[in-house]
Structure formats: structure tokens, C-alpha cells
């Protein structure tokens, strides 16, 4: 661990020039005292590193010194796909390896290309989390990622809406979807999808497994999403919606926006036929009630009846002010 950190420290000094102990400690996620010890170790090993005191000071290498230790270690090669995405790399437990791989790549580039790569990193940022969403804790994600890479069977306690139960699984892949982590795993008969934040306990066993050669994570995930959305909203409401209503409806989610995009041609007054998927009668009624007079329900009758019941209930409630 320390040898890896010393190499990271050496690459940082070579790539960035003068760095304070505080800057190096923040980058390597250690204390400043540890940085001072590591600087001493590099110096004792013959690396020409020196420090300047005072404002603008810090540690740097003797001008002209270069290390040729730029080959990628195995963990750095694994972390290559997370380069430029520090949040993703950190979540998967490969943050330091990704940082070392990035530094080595930068050192291998000529100066002009290095500047271009740095400019891209400074000006583009990926934030995968949805708006108004607090990230759920995923303490088992690094261990799970390691099990996926090493093809190791896992035993976990998992909490779903049905309650908690134990699973023995062969983890096949991880997916980051709208700020939440999911993983595909093979059970005794078929692959299933689990939410990483719902894992309550996890053990990575020493038992290996053979990854199915015909399993393709992106294709499996696309099929899973399509099937999930179909199960989530199995019924259809046939609506007559104004232009204003379609605009309001399109803002209520991707599924609603797709329904609006597939609407029939509007009449002279801007009203158009539209088919909207929905989960339950109550869910459809509550959603359409928010559109007010901008929508009429052609079918099913149960949705129209439920909207009228809710509207009548609102009228009764509003006739008497709260205490």
C-alpha cells in the first residue's frame, strides 16, 4: 500500500510541479504528517525532491528529473474506464488506481497533448445523480465490484419490499442508473437485478464461477428496463387532451413525454387523442386530476369515475375551512 502511494506521490510531483503538503494530502487522502514521512522516504531512495518554505512554497522535484515508471499496474488497468470520473472511481473503490493511471497517461503524452487533455477534464463534468436526490449509502459497492471483476460468488442479505432474505449469487455486472447503483447476478436458474443500496450484509466467498459467455450487460440491462416499465404500467388510458394539457403532461416523466410524442394529430382547437400507460386506477386518476379541464377520459370508465369521485371529495373538503 505504501509503495503504491509513494509512486502516486512521485507521479504527482512530476506531473504538477510544486505542491504543498496540504494539496498532496488531499489528493492522496492521507494526513500531512504521512506526506512528510513519504517525502523523506523518496529522498532517502535517491529521488531529488526538495521543499520551499513560505507562501507559494511546497515540494517539487529537481528540474529535469523524470521517472520512467509509467507502466500500468493491474489495478490501474482495471480502473482505466473510470478515468476522468473521480466520483465513479471512488464509489467503486478504485479511486487511487484511477488517479495513478491518469497521471501515468498524462506523463506519457507530449506537453501540447497533455494540455489538451487537461483542458477537457477541467471543462466537462458528469453528474449522474438526479435532481433533489440524496445519494443512498452503498457501503458494499467496492467489495461487490471486486467480486464482479474476480468472478467470485457472494452471499448477501437483501431487503426488498417483500422483506429481508438471504441470497447466494454470481455477480455479473454493475450499472449506475440515475444516481443509483444496481447489479445483475445469476441465481440458480436466471439472472436478476438487485439494488446495491438495499444490501444489508455481504460476504465475498472464495468460490469462483464461470461467467456465461453469452451474457452481455448492456443488452441485458436494456431488456430488463423494457420489461420493468411494462410491468410497472401495464394498463392504458385513452385520453382527449388539449395542447396545454399535453404540454403539462409531457413534464411528468419520460413515459408521459413519450405518450405525448406519439399522440394523434390535433383538431382545429388543438385537442388530440393520446394513449397513456398507468399503474393503477388511483394513480391515473390522481395524475389526470392535476390537468384539470385540459383532459377528457375516453376509456377506461373506471378512471373517469374515480376522477369524479376525487373531485367531489375535494369540493366537500374545501367547503369547510380547517380548524
Automatic annotation (TrEMBL):
Keywords: Signal, Transcription, Transcription regulation. It comes from the Bacteria. This is HTH deoR-type domain-containing protein. Pfam families: HTH_11 (PF08279), WCX (PF25583), WYL (PF13280). The keyword Nuclease does not apply. PROSITE patterns: HTH_DEOR_2, WYL. SUPFAM superfamilies: Winged helix' DNA-binding domain (SSF46785). Residues 1-21 form the signal peptide. Residues 2-75 form the HTH deoR-type domain. It comes from Niveispirillum lacus. One of its GO terms (molecular function) is DNA-binding transcription factor activity. The keyword Ligase does not apply.
